[in-house]
Design goal:
Oligomer: single chain
Structural class: alpha/beta
CATH topology of the largest domain: Alkaline Phosphatase, subunit A
Mean pLDDT: 81
Largest sheet: 9 strands, mixed
Helix content: 25-40%
Low-confidence stretches: 1-16, 185-228, 451-463
Order of helices and strands: HEHEHHHEEHEHEEEHEEEHHEEEEHH
Shape: globular
CATH class of the largest domain: Alpha Beta
CATH superfamily of the largest domain: Alkaline Phosphatase, subunit A
Strand content: 15-25%
Bound molecules: zinc ion
Number of domains: 2
């Protein structure tokens, strides 16, 4: 009788367990949140994603971990900040071998896994292909940046061919990358701002010193005449091109979502739409996404459709969420434990279960790189923010900038001198974050074993 009851309970539990949900992550390179209608943009640039947001939850304050693609890809796939995975815009650029990736864990959970991309920083060389059954980077097969439209048919074939197995599909989209939409020829527009050096050569110009100071010998060149110096002024011509490109990207994403629906997958699939980082369009004298951690760069869209929570459709969360939160979120959806991964983010599923769940007060980002202008110039910028305050720390100059994001969302009025109390509090939190991110295994700072064990043996208590 007891055995029968046990069997009955086991069968009931198996029947009660819902089939695993598929997961799709659409990661749009260079997507800044404030150009999406769902985030308050006045122009109607993203109607497709705005409509999808109504059938999803939206995170109003989602923050990238860095200003650059590979750092942010690594944070998504490892759940760790750049201080831990170590992949900055300078060597070494390959993900260290001891980092386990989300794709590896999704595979262990029984998922079929695939990644589609076309950018340099998703090449297999960087180690992010671990755990993917199917890893397509069109750049590695010789094609230049490939439009999402061209990759979409193969992606849809792949999801359609999974049968009863759940799938994890990651797609990085490069359609919004510099030079945006070159075929749109907006350079010839009347009343253009006259800027011709818009990153068309494939790289954003570094327009000023990271601290806004007059360039010294080893600093980058002075801004070109006519460009804004330090103030948060967007360049109309770049904005026009960017918006045109974003609109084209939006149409492709909307088409992809409609194809998922046609295949009956919408109600079985969690769909996350986000950006690896944003884009500067002239604000603070910066363009592109290689340097600077101002809001155009860090504030990214994050929209999440989860068929298990229809009651949350249209809900907007104001909590500070970060790129590193996606790893535990994905593994929670897959039902895969991750306690051993020492993830630094928090699962967004906690907020789905309880929108008032305790959440972080501080969020962090880092950008570190050398430049092509001088051998020794290392840009090392760290940021900590709360819902209200944001502190920039230019480590190479030991200089701070402080902004009140509620009163000054464009970060134009530096309050570092006026509010030393806030600088002190936030710099303490930043140092604490750096300290907590440091490996704490015993050993030499270099991580190497002592060269002479005998030297250690000679020590006696009291030495
Ligand atoms: Zn990117």
């Amino acid at each position: 009788m007891a055995l029968t009851l046990t069997l009955l309970l086991a069968v009931t539990a198996a029947q009660a367990k819902a089939p695993a949900l598929n997961v799709v992550v659409i990661d749009v390179c260079s997507a800044r949140a404030d150009h999406f209608g769902a985030y308050g943009y006045k122009k109607d640039v993203t109607p497709g994603i705005d409509a999808a947001a109504k059938d999803a939850v939206l995170f109003e304050n989602a923050m990238a971990q860095s200003s650059w693609c590979l750092s942010n890809y690594a944070s998504l796939f490892t759940g760790h900040t750049p201080e831990v995975h170590g992949v900055y815009a300078m060597a070494p650029r390959t993900l260290p071998k001891d980092h386990v990736t989300v794709a590896q864990r999704m595979k262990e959970a029984g998922y079929d896994t695939a990644a589609y991309s076309g950018g340099t920083w998703m090449l297999p060389d960087w180690g992010l292909n671990r755990g993917f059954d199917h890893y397509i980077n069109t750049l590695s097969t010789g094609a230049a940046l490939t439009a999402f439209a061209k990759k979409m048919p193969e992606m849809l074939d792949w999801v359609s061919g999974r049968g009863s197995r759940p799938f994890f599909l990651y797609a990085s989209i490069e359609d919004l990358h510099i030079p945006y939409a070159p075929e749109l020829h907006v350079l010839e527009e009347p009343n253009a701002d006259g800027v011709t050096r818009d990153g068309g050569a494939g790289r954003a110009p570094l327009l000023r010193g990271a601290d806004g100071a007059a360039p010294a010998k080893s600093d980058p060149p002075a801004p070109e005449p006519g460009l804004p110096k330090g103030r948060s002024l967007a360049l109309p011509q770049l904005v026009t091109k960017y918006d045109a490109s974003l609109n084209r990207t939006d149409r492709q994403i909307a088409l992809f979502l409609s194809k998922l629906k046609e295949r009956g997958l919408w109600d079985k699939t969690v769909v996350i739409i986000t950006g690896d980082h944003g884009e500067s369009l002239g604000e603070h004298g910066l363009t592109g996404h290689m340097e600077g951690l101002y809001e155009p760069m860090l504030h990214v869209p994050l929209i999440m459709h989860h068929p298990g929570f229809p009651q949350l459709k249209g809900r907007r969360y104001a909590q500070l969420v970060q790129r590193i939160d996606l790893a535990p979120t994905l593994l929670d959806i897959a039902g895969q434990p991750y306690g051993d991964m020492e993830l630094q983010g928090a699962s967004l599923m906690a907020l789905f279960e309880n929108p008032a769940a305790p959440w972080r007060e501080y969020a962090f980002a880092a950008s570190k790189r050398s430049t092509r202008f001088a051998k020794d110039f290392i840009l090392d910028e760290r940021v900590v923010r709360t819902k209200r305050w944001k502190l920039h720390w230019y480590m190479q100059r030991n200089r701070y900038e402080l902004y009140d994001l509620q009163a000054d969302p464009l970060e134009e009025n530096d309050l570092a001198d006026k509010r030393p109390d806030v600088v002190s509090n936030l710099s303490f939190e930043l140092i604490r974050h750096l300290e907590l991110s440091r490996p704490h295994a015993p050993g030499l700072p270099s991580g190497k074993a002592p060269s002479s064990p005998a030297g250690l043996e000679r020590r006696t208590p009291g030495d």
